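Side project, low priority. Logging it here so it doesn't get lost.
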Amino acid sequence: MEEAARLFQLIVNGAASGCIYGLIALGFVLIYKATEMVNFAQGDIMMMGAFVAFSLIAHWGVNYWIGSLIAIAITAAFGFLLDATILRRVIGQPQFAVVMLTLGLGFIFRAGAGLGWGYDSVGFMTPFTNQTVAVSGLVLGADNISIIVGTVLLCGVLYLFFSKTRLGVAMQASSQNQLAAYYMGIPVRTVFSLIWAISAGVAAAAGILLSPVSMIDVSMGFLGIKAFAAAVIGGFGSIPGSVIGGVIVGIVEQLSGYYLPAGFQEVTANVVLLITLIVRPQGLFAELMGKRV
C-alpha cells in the first residue's frame, strides 16, 4: 500500500511538471501553426513573465490573483510587440534564420532579466505555497494540484476561445490559409501578432503556476528545451498533443528519477523524444490532414 501511495505521488508530481512543459509547448505549437516559425525563446518569455509577477506581487504588494493577471497581460503585450516589430520581418526566410533569431532573443532576454532582477533565485508567496490537500488518505501538495487544475482551466478557456469566438475562428482560418483569410478581410498580420501575444501570455501563466514549486531565476527558461521535446512527442502542430506530450515527459521523468540510477532523470525527455521519433516520427497526436495552400 505504501508503494502504491508513493507511485501515485510520483505520478501527480510528474503530471504537474508535465503541465508546465505542456503549456510552454502549447506556445510552440500555436506559433508554428500560424506562422510556421519555431520560437526557441518561448521558455525565456515564460521566465520574464514569472519575474514580472514577482515584481508585482513581492515588491509592489499587489494581490496574487490580480498581480498574476496583470503579469500575463504585460507579457502578452510584450509578445504582440515582439512580433510586430521584429519577428514579422523574418516570415518567409529560411528556418535557420528564424532559429538563430529566436535563440539570440533568448540570450538577450536572459541578459536583460539578469540586469533587471539579478542572477539570484527569487520567489513569492502564493495561496498554494506550503499547503496540502488530502485525497483518499493521501496528502498531496496544493502547489502541484494548482498547476494541474490551472492547466486544465487554461486549456478549456483556449478551446472555447478558438472554437466559439470570431477572433479565434479567424486565427484558425489564418493558420490554415493566409491568402484566403486575407481575401476574406481578416487582418492576417494583426492576427499573427495576437497569436504571439496569446503564446506569450500562456508562457507567463506557466511561469506563475510554477512559482510555488520552483524558484524564479534567469536559467528557468531552459525548461523550453524539455517543452520542445514535449511538442514533438505530442505531434508538432497538435494543440492537445502538446499538453499530453508534456504530461508524458513529466511523469516519465519523475518515475525515472525514483526507480533509475541518479542522473538519468535529466536526459529522460531526450530519451522519450528519440523513442517517439523512431516509433512514430510524426508524433503521437499528429494531425492527419496537411495544411492546405
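Brief comment: Residues 288-293 have pLDDT under 50 and may be disordered.
Revisit when time allows.
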